[in-house]
Amino acid sequence: MERDIYDEDHEAFRDLVKDFVKRHVNNEAIEKWNADGEVDRATMLAAGEAGIIGLSVPEEFGGAGMLQDYRFRAVVNEEVIAAGAGSLAGAFGIQDDLAVPYLVHMGTQEQKEKWLPRMATGEVIGALAMTEPGAGSDLRGIKTTAKKVDGGYVVNGAKTFISSGATADLVVTFVKTGEGNRPDAFSLVLIENGMEGFDHGKKLHKMGFQGHDTAELSFSDVFVPEENLIGGKEGMGFIQLMMNLPLERLSIGVAGAAAAQAALDWTVAYTKDREAFGERIIDFQNSRFTIADMATTVDALWAYIDRALLAYKDGKLSAEEAAKVKFWATEREWEVLDAGVQLHGGYGYITEYPIARAFLDARVHRIYGGTNEIMREIVGRQIAGKR
Ligand SMILES: Cc1cc2nc3c(=O)[nH]c(=O)nc-3n(C[C@H](O)[C@H](O)[C@H](O)COP(=O)(O)OP(=O)(O)OC[C@H]3O[C@@H](n4cnc5c(N)ncnc54)[C@H](O)[C@@H]3O)c2cc1C
């Protein structure tokens, strides 16, 4: 089904992204990122120079000023994932969807001026640290504290599973500034690379997204100046996290749809090329039925995602609607990828093949950004009229 949500600006931008992909994404680069467990800084800087990160950064701070129009980010996801570089798409996603928005939408003027220009160029890599060893889904169970002292806060605690955590220069960190677990007991602070007592910890070995770092972080008596409190207001952290939820969930849904589309395209190409019993794999009825299912699922995915992209642009995508998108899209993604792997036979299991990498990457889409169980809980609670 033809999609119709992109206009000529988006298509011109797609050409820019395609050009970047042609110059910077190839097997050698992907292998290097996978071996190093991170995307190299030169690639992030090149992305900054090409203007394909920092999309929501206002023009006055050196960005593209696309604010609420996530369609441009969707284009980046589509092209980078189609090139088999899920890890690079992940690194871009953390920068643009998880770190930058807290400064663009909630930062003080001083914070914006200090950080956004360098986030748009890729000189400053951001991360968002919420999860802790003892608290993931239940975020109000975090133990990292920020105690008020003269001129700022002293932070103690640990975070885990932080995407871009090893390479980040700036970490938007969810901390407790009050007692108990009421929403106003939490704040977001900016913790900078090099602050005394801040340790990036070790990179975690994952089944997928091998080329994008995920790390543990620890904070031992880290002094964070008052001006690093996001928005300059204490007790707003939980509300600030809630404000970015629609975007976070939409971004995972879009990445899921882009991976499903890529899996379909790779599978069609592969099954037209490979033969068994004197016939192309696609000439077996079972293959055609499977591909028909994949193609129809991908059409339905885009129809839903495109509707959500437009709702987001108009400021109408609620956290609950975005939760539906996140869990439904990532589950369809999983089905499509699994079917695609099967039609690739043994090669579908070999990580040299993009479908194998995308399959492994896809698994975490159902876990992070709020697990799919938590997404269903949010949707079900709203329908049931429970808070
Ligand atoms: C590769 C990767 C990257 C990540 N990146 C980041 C990042 O950049 N920043 C960050 O802060 N975090 C990040 N995370 C953490 C991620 O968001 C959490 O792992 C996720 O929210 C789940 O939390 P948990 O691991 O503590 O699982 P738990 O909360 O312990 O959940 C375990 C299981 O119990 C289920 N469960 C829990 N509560 C309920 C309930 N009320 N009802 C029904 N079922 C429930 C869950 O769905 C899950 O199946 C990342 C994780 C991974 C693996």
Describe this structure in words.
There is one protein chain. The two termini are 38 Å apart. Helices cover 51% and strands 14% of the residues. It folds into 3 domains: 8-124, Acyl-CoA dehydrogenase/oxidase, N-terminal domain (Butyryl-Coa Dehydrogenase, subunit A, domain 1); 127-235, Butyryl-CoA Dehydrogenase, subunit A, domain 2 (Beta Barrel); 239-384, Up-down Bundle (Butyryl-CoA Dehydrogenase, subunit A, domain 3). It is built from 11 helices and 9 strands. The mean pLDDT is 97. Helix 4 runs antiparallel to helix 5 and helix 7 runs antiparallel to helix 8. It has 387 residues and is an alpha+beta fold. The chain binds flavin-adenine dinucleotide. Flavin-adenine dinucleotide binds at residues 128-131, 136-137, 161-163, 206, 209, 214, 364, 367-368, 370-371, 373-374, 377.
Secondary structure layout plus pairing:
Layout: H1 8-24, H2 27-36, H3 41-50, H4 71-82, H5 86-106, H6 109-121, E1 126-129, E2 145-149, E3 152-163, E4 170-176, E5 186-192, E6 198-199, E7 214-225, H7 237-273, E8 275-276, E9 279-280, H8 285-313, H9 319-343, H10 354-365, H11 372-384
Parallel strand pairs: 1-4
Antiparallel strand pairs: 2-3, 3-7, 4-5, 6-7, 8-9
The chain binds flavin-adenine dinucleotide (FAD).
Flavin-adenine dinucleotide binds next to strand 1, strand 3 and helix 11.
